[in-house]
Design a protein that fits this description.
The complex is a heterotrimer of chains A (287), B (333) and C (450). By secondary structure, chain A is α+β, with helices and mostly antiparallel strands. Helices cover 34% and strands 13% of the residues of chain A. Classes of the chains: A alpha+beta (287), B mainly alpha (333), C alpha/beta (450). The interface between B and C is large, with 40 and 74 residues.
């Protein structure tokens, strides 16, 4: 019976003990004090790390929340009111009510309305195509169809429709984190206030050219004729740079502008059916 | 003209090379070595090469079709090159099942697990070869004596390679001048009339391939010249120090897989460094490591291991050894 | 002959050899008929766009200023025709986007009175350095090699900098283009006078003209003519792209390396194109502002390729019509050379100061091959004349690692296209490098602002 085994066991156990003690003392000496609430808040957040709050990840946002006086300007679009309510309870602060938003594409230029006048043969990336030239159509403001926005979406809420060559946003999945808005080099995506029953109404065009060239490039372009502006009783429409824009917070969804628009540039979604005469005119032009 | 104009970013002109042309250029450079291997080892050479190439292609096809589910790229020539190089690194009487296992290791493990062409850190053919050497040491170290089509395949008569003779002899206390009679002459080693892996025996065939690769601008001179150059310097020093215990430089360059390794294996695009400075350091590292293994290591031949070890350093070299940029002042101290 | 070729100067690192295709090197320069109407953009140069000073329905004469330069780095725009301004509207230009342009309906060809229309070559230069620089500014002279940098800026040596030698770029390294070649052969003496004028402006006594050796007739002709001029020498250079790039030309001729991020003036030299020298001759000696330039119209399927003096603002389709019309199989039209030129989306785009040539590519040469994975062959690194590593810059840009890309000197890249040209796997190297460059520059600007 040799001494090798007991000696080995003893030596290694002693070494393990010594190292454990060293690690413990070093950890104690160099410990960084962190507010324990940061961990609690982080646990309440959705952990998507999508950047929708404007911070570089859920941990950063948790730190900001703990440090902040009020929740003004701080919101997690993914978790929404539920999560912000929980965080408010943890920190003993007031939750600020924030309007739910949804992403919307301000372009309806499918090949049916906006003919192609050249062929792009580079890398299918919107940023690159945008920096090269105005695109395969005569509208230098319109969607380029290479899907930078779809690739940016971390919530599977977007896909490219091959028939219209435009991105489609799945409203139920969209958390309005803003990644697609940042990704689009032409700034065609916007976060708009989500109305009741998921209704949407907006000018689906971003073309700032004068009416003539805009219409020649795309049949459903906004030509800034101001008919919508004139018919709106709520002052929700502004015309700037040859383009009409509907303010989602002022709009009452009366839909008068939709029927007034001569180029069918204004789109409406999730509304009850209209009376037959008007329905014909509008139906063929909505996506 | 009714079609729409194409619009793409510059440049609007392109050189004639494609990946496929480069790979087939390497295949062409290997053809002299293929002919000499058939000339010296007969049927065995044909069977081993064919098995290796076909299994490599089949494994790549199966993995791309059923596991990756990506477009099949076996026509780009890279699996063909791996298959040929793998065959050239083994004895001509190697049983088929071992070759198939080796091909599997080369393609599936050394290349495909890393993501396919362009992503592997280690030379696939060498990984396969080393795997076979360690798993089947007996079959991988029985070298047929070259006898043309009379060599036979399974029943080939085997003998030791020149390097093995020297290594064993020195271990037994014999001196170089005594061993010289047992090894082939430099002329024999140059032309290939010696034992060894199928592709490594004929130095002349490999050198013809080298000239072709340089002419077609498939490789640059940096790696082969630094591998062979550093070996020559190392062996010259050893030989001058003790000519009875160390063979002369010419022997070391012609014997074993140095030429095959320096010209075809070390210059593999994917696993070699990107800048000339790094290439020279890489080549010198291979040369020196090969000699260290040959002189002091357990194996008579060390090129495969040397290349694989240096492959491991390539990402580090690419990261830290940067070329001097145009207009960059070289800072002193 | 081989030895002589080896002895030619060149830049030491990188470079590629695209096929030369100089189909029009023997074609004498002709005058393109004046079009029915022109669209003259207000930004044909680097720097602030000029501001329009004419109104709709105003009558203008050839050579009259129609847009004024704004600021120091800007240039005047002159009318290239006489007629009536029909509108001030937008036109798509070579940038691929619309910009403001003055549209003029042509009536006759009446020039402003100050221009000397005589054919005599005036060799005596009676202007001082300051007068020359002022005249260049007034005449709207910009670099005609393609970069269109306002020449009066490049002829002004700012305080604290020195200039001891002028370098003239007669290289024309892009395939297909022959406008500089023909200009040197047919108007060599005027070019040399223009160079002398520039030497006075810069206050230097030496000038070196670099010409690629695929133009031996131009080398011989200019060498012979230069003997009559003090301080001007002509040098044949090895044929290698991008020999015509500023930094590479300086390195080849006088062996000085422009430091990264700096200008040629930091190595005491300035580079100008031969076309610019000719334009300066006309401006100083003949009071003729810049409103026309030599453009090469070429392509393998073009029936009558040639070189033309074209009035600025002429739509490209007029040039194509003069060359025999657009070939059936045309797939792509490029303004400039094949390596750095811009593909056009229509033929209504006007010729501007930077248009050195129009190339029509047949369909088979107009489409990119599918790209394959990188095989790490290092050919891109060998081809880069600035010793950068394009494969790395592409990967970094693709993955969004822009800080690392900046460290690897992505902003040094001159976008010459040699890397994309040589890549066997047909990777879109330059596309991603451009993306990385613009992102890094944008980030650097934001960082400074912060």
């Amino acid at each position: 019976m040799s001494l090798t085994v007991p000696v080995t066991i003893l030596t290694l156990s002693l070494l393990a003990l010594i190292f454990a003690l060293i690690l413990y003392f070093v950890a104690q000496k160099f410990r960084i004090y962190e507010d324990p609430r940061i961990d609690e808040v982080q646990a309440a957040l959705p952990a998507a790390n999508c950047g929708g709050c404007g911070f570089a990840g859920c941990r950063n946002f948790a730190e900001a929340l703990v440090k902040a006086e009020t929740f003004e300007g701080l919101n997690c679009p993914v978790g929404g009111a539920t999560v912000m309510g929980e965080v408010a309870k943890i920190l003993g602060k007031e939750a600020v009510a924030v309007e739910p938003l949804v992403a919307v594409l301000m372009c309806n230029g499918s090949p049916e309305f906006r003919p192609h006048t050249s062929k792009y043969d580079g890398v299918p990336d919107c940023r690159m195509a945008h920096s090269l030239y105005l695109g395969e159509t005569d509208c230098s403001y319109g969607c380029l169809d290479y899907g930078d926005c779809v690739r940016a979406c971390a919530f599977d809420a977007m896909y490219m429709n091959p028939a219209t060559r435009l991105p489609v946003i799945i409203d139920d999945k969209c958390v309005a984190c803003g990644a697609c808005v940042k990704a689009c080099p032409r700034h065609l995506l916007e976060l708009r206030k989500k109305a009741k029953k998921d209704r949407k109404l907006y000018v689906a065009c971003s073309n700032c050219d004068k009416g003539g060239p805009a219409r020649r490039a795309c049949k459903v372009a906004c030509i800034a004729c101001s008919k919508c502006f004139n018919v709106c009783e709520f002052g929700a429409i502004t015309i700037e740079n040859n383009l009409a824009y509907i303010d989602a917070f002022k709009c009452t969804f009366c839909r008068k502008c939709v029927t007034e628009c001569p180029t069918f540039s204004i789109l409406e979604f999730n509304f009850p059916p209209r009376k037959p005469k008007i329905k014909e005119q509008v139906e063929t032009k909505t996506v | 003209m009714s079609n729409l104009l194409n619009v793409s970013p510059s440049p609007h002109a392109h050189g004639k090379e494609t990946t496929q042309k480069l790979m087939f250029g390497v295949v062409a450079a290997l053809l002299p070595a293929l002919f000499t291997s058939i000339f010296y080892f007969g049927w065995g050479a044909i069977i081993v090469t064919a098995t290796s190439v076909i299994s490599c292609l089949i494994f790549e096809y199966l993995i791309q079709r059923f596991i990756f589910r990506k477009p099949i790229t076996i026509t780009d020539g890279s699996a063909l090159v791996t298959g040929m190089l793998l065959a050239f690194n083994v004895p001509s009487n190697l049983p088929v099942f071992i070759i198939v296992i080796g091909s599997f290791v080369s393609i599936a493990i050394a290349k495909m697990t890393f993501g396919g062409l362009g992503n592997n850190p280690f030379n696939p053919a060498l990984v396969g070869r080393v795997f076979m050497l360690i798993s089947f040491p007996v079959q991988m170290t029985s070298w047929p004596v070259p006898a043309g089509f009379g060599t036979g395949y399974i029943d080939a008569v085997t003998g030791a390679t020149p390097l093995a003779i020297i290594k064993e002899g020195l271990k037994n206390g014999e001196s170089i001048s005594q061993l010289v009679t047992q090894i082939p002459s430099p002329a024999q080693m140059f032309l290939g009339d010696t034992g060894g892996s199928m592709g490594e025996v004929a130095a002349v065939a490999l050198l013809i391939g080298f000239v072709w690769l340089l002419y077609k601008k498939i490789i640059t001179w940096h790696i082969p010249v630094s591998v062979i150059g550093s070996m020559v310097i190392f062996t010259t020093i050893l030989w001058l120090a003790n000519p009875e215990k160390n063979a002369n430089p010419m022997f070391h360059v012609l014997a074993g897989g140095v030429l095959l390794g320096a010209i075809f294996m070390a210059t593999d695009y994917v696993t070699s460094p990107m800048t000339p400075k790094s290439m020279i350091i890489y080549g010198c590292g291979i040369g020196i490591l090969t000699m260290i293994i040959r002189v002091w290591g357990a194996y008579p031949e060390g090129v495969s291991f040397a290349i694989l070890i240096m492959n491991a350093f390539v990402p580090l070299m690419n990261l830290y050894i940067k070329p001097r940029r145009f207009g960059e002042e070289v800072k002193n101290g | 002959m081989l030895l002589k070729n080896l002895a030619l100067k060149t830049f030491p690192i990188g470079g590629v050899h695209p096929p030369e295709n100089k189909l029009t090197s023997e074609s004498e320069i002709q005058y393109l008929p004046i079009p029915v109407s022109v669209a003259i953009p207000v930004s044909q140069h680097i720097g602030a766009p000029a501001s329009v000073i004419v109104n709709k329905d105003e009558k203008v004469k050839t050579g009259q200023v129609i847009a004024q330069s704004k600021g120091f780095v800007s240039a005047n725009i002159h009318s290239s025709v006489s007629g009536k301004v029909s509108k001030i509207d937008t036109v798509i230009d070579t940038s691929g986007y619309k910009q403001t342009a003055v549209f003029i309906t042509v009536e006759g060809d009446e020039w402003i009175e100050t221009i000397d229309r005589g054919n005599e070559i005036l060799t005596d230069i009676n202007s001082s350095s300051e007068e020359i620089i002022k005249k260049c500014l007034e005449s709207g002279i910009v670099g005609l090699g393609g970069a269109t940098f306002p020449s009066h800026v490049k002829l002004t040596v700012p305080a604290g900098k020195k200039c001891d030698i002028l370098i003239i770029n007669g290289v024309e390294c892009e395939p297909y283009l022959t406008s500089d070649h023909r200009l040197m052969l047919e108007r060599g003496e005027e070019v040399l006078i223009g160079i002398s004028i520039m030497m006075i402006a810069l206050k230097v006594s030496r000038a070196m003209i670099g010409i690629e050796n695929n133009k031996p007739d131009a080398v011989a002709h200019m060498t012979k003519l230069a003997t009559a001029f003090q301080g001007i020498t002509v040098h044949a250079l090895k044929v290698k792209y991008p020999q015509g790039a500023e930094k590479q030309l300086i390195k080849a001729l006088i062996n000085r390396e422009v430091p990264s991020g700096r200008l040629p003036l930091d190595v005491n030299t300035v580079v100008h194109n031969v076309g610019t020298a000719f334009a300066i001759y006309e401006a100083i000696q003949k009071n003729k502002p810049l409103f026309e330039r030599v453009v090469t119209i070429t392509g393998k399927s073009v029936s009558k390729p040639g070189n033309y003096f074209v009035r600025l603002g002429t739509p490209v389709k007029d040039l194509i019509a003069a060359a025999g019309g657009i070939p059936e199989d045309t797939g792509k039209i490029v303004s400039g050379g094949p390596m750095m030129g811009r593909a056009l989306s229509s033929t209504d785009i006007p010729v501007v100061k930077g248009t050195s040539g129009i190339i029509l590519f047949p369909a088979g040469e107009s489409v990119r091959m599918e790209s394959m994975p990188c095989i790490r062959c290092a050919k891109c690194t060998q081809a880069c004349a600035l010793n950068l590593e394009p494969y790395l810059l592409m990967t970094l840009s693709e993955k969004g690692l822009f800080e690392r890309a900046e460290k690897e000197r992505i902003t040094d890249c001159m976008e010459c296209g040699s890397c994309s040209y040589i890549c066997p796997a047909r990777r879109p190297l330059l596309d991603y490098i451009r993306l990385g460059k613009s992102t890094v520059i944008k980030m650097a600007r934001e960082w400074v602002v912060k």
